[in-house]
Design brief:
This protein has 227 residues and is an alpha/beta fold. 48% of the residues lie in helices and 8% in strands. The N and C termini lie close together (7 Å). The N terminus is likely disordered.
């Protein structure tokens, strides 16, 4: 169930969480960054409601939404009186407050989880966005740097493939928010209609991600039972 309701502005000062509050996730289902948060919420089994915001809904530029999220992007998460934006910040919060087993128990362990989340944004995201934008276009309509961006994307996927070799998960030998952050983005990268080598280890990991019921909900392959 989705809703396209007016957003009530909430203060981010001294947030108070009430146990009976249902988490609100503002963002369209098709956004890769929103899918990360859905994946996490579904893994946690936390009650939540997702509301359609962004792109075709043309509702993130309103004054009310900008007061929640000054970037006018999605996702935005509202938990009680706390408003959070930026998908990886949301994942860190959800793990810390609602699912500590999804992150490290110590500061040192958290670095092992969060470095892959930061690497995704710092290294993989730029070529991912470039190839996502142009991969389905005919060559004459692609950006001049498409070949370079594609090569960069493949180089980053090779890094992932090398790291996951012999491992089930990206950090701490267990499923964490590192895997959650990477899941929907890597799936798209592996499915882009471009020539690439086989990444057998990464594809094995992606198969395990695809098999998780929470991920199926995140990418819209099955409905959520959370709300």
């Amino acid at each position: 169930m989705t809703a396209n309701r007016h957003v009530n502005v909430r203060s981010t000062a001294e947030p108070k969480h009430r146990e009976n509050d249902v988490i609100r996730l503002l963002g369209r289902q098709t956004s890769g960054n929103v899918q990360k948060v859905i994946f996490c919420l579904e893994e946690l089994g936390s009650p939540y409601v997702r509301e359609d915001y962004g792109r075709q809904f043309a509702n993130t530029l309103t004054e009310a939404y900008r007061k929640l999220n000054p970037t006018a992007k999605v996702p935005t998460l509202i938990d009680g009186e706390l408003v959070i934006w930026e998908s990886h910040t949301i994942l860190r919060y959800l793990a810390a407050v609602h699912g500590p087993t999804l992150t490290g128990a110590t500061a040192a362990e958290r670095t092992m989880v969060e470095r892959w989340m930061d690497w995704l944004l710092g290294a993989l995201n730029t070529p991912y966005v470039a190839v996502f934008r142009d991969a389905k276009k005919v060559p004459a309509e692609r950006a001049p740097d498409f070949a370079a961006q594609s090569a960069d994307l493949l180089a980053q996927l090779k890094i992932l493939d090398g790291h996951i070799a012999g491992r089930d998960w990206f950090a701490l030998n267990r499923f964490t928010i590192a895997d959650i952050a990477l899941g929907s983005i890597v799936k798209r990268c592996l499915e882009f209609p471009i020539e690439r080598p086989a990444y057998s280890e990464l594809e094995r990991w992606q198969t395990a991600i695809d098999a998780r019921p929470a991920f199926a909900v995140a990418i819209g392959a099955k409905p959520s039972q959370a709300y």
